[in-house]
Amino acid sequence: MPGRFISTHSMVLALPLHVDHLPERGAAVEAETAAARPGGGYVTLAAAAAQGVKASMASPLGTGPNSYTVRQHLEEADVEILTTELVGDIGIAIQLVEADGSTTSVVTAGVESEPSRAALDRITLHDGDLVHISGVDLTNRIGAETLTGWGASLPESVMLVVSISPAVEEVPVSAWRRLLSRADVVTMNIREKAALDAILTRVEPGLSIRHIMRPHAAVVRRLGVMGCELQVNESAPRIHLPAFDAFTVDTAGVGDTHIATMCASLLKGASLEDACRAANAAAAFTIAHESALPVPTLADIEQILEQGGLIYSS
């Protein structure tokens, strides 16, 4: 049996608003609303579970109605909850989805921003488990100290995958140094990699993400419509994997789906190259649908891999 996918990526309740364009500062635009749905780490966990691996949530949930809604969705997705509930509630993410699928989010903080080291230490880890820590949860002091400390102390028998987030500039440099020096795989998009390398260079000239990471660790750079690029270790060549054909409808959750599919494939014994190829197929499915839900099934991904892209009926 493969190990578990354990994610500390925090949960929020998402409220998507579809707009023709973003308003100028002080202006207003009309929006079409969709039903509230679980966001943040939910997509990552649900996508991993849909690939047939055991998915476990290691981020806080509260006692409020937002948490109750997300908890129901987690149970339906067959995601195990490893943490005890806190008094309070998780935050809300207001998502402005433009006509071209681009998504801009405004997020309020709740109990998800208060991870507990004691709660994480109570999780029994097994050889072969894969832990995912998202940079989105490192922007506040408690999250940065708790998650980097726990992540850095993980046993070598557990794989650590770190995803850089759009809020890369808000994370303390010390947190990046500590977490990336333990990571087995670091995944990020084009902007996130450029931003973090620029931050590190300002701290120490010539310093980059690769310099902090261990020689055997891998880097995955998501390139949007160009697919992704990977380097399995420090001395290996960079490999480019093209994206699969798909029409862009909504970019929300595409990165999370890519990360989850890559991790699930690694847990099932795939090479990093094959895992990223499957992740590209999952991303093509997600970007062609309004919202990141429902997540692609294993059959969806296999079909895209076989066909070389999404087949649209005339």
From TrEMBL:
Keywords: Kinase, Transferase. Residues 26-293 form the Carbohydrate kinase PfkB domain. Pfam families: PfkB. GO terms for molecular function: kinase activity. It comes from the Bacteria. InterPro entries: PfkB_dom, Ribokinase-like. This is Carbohydrate kinase.
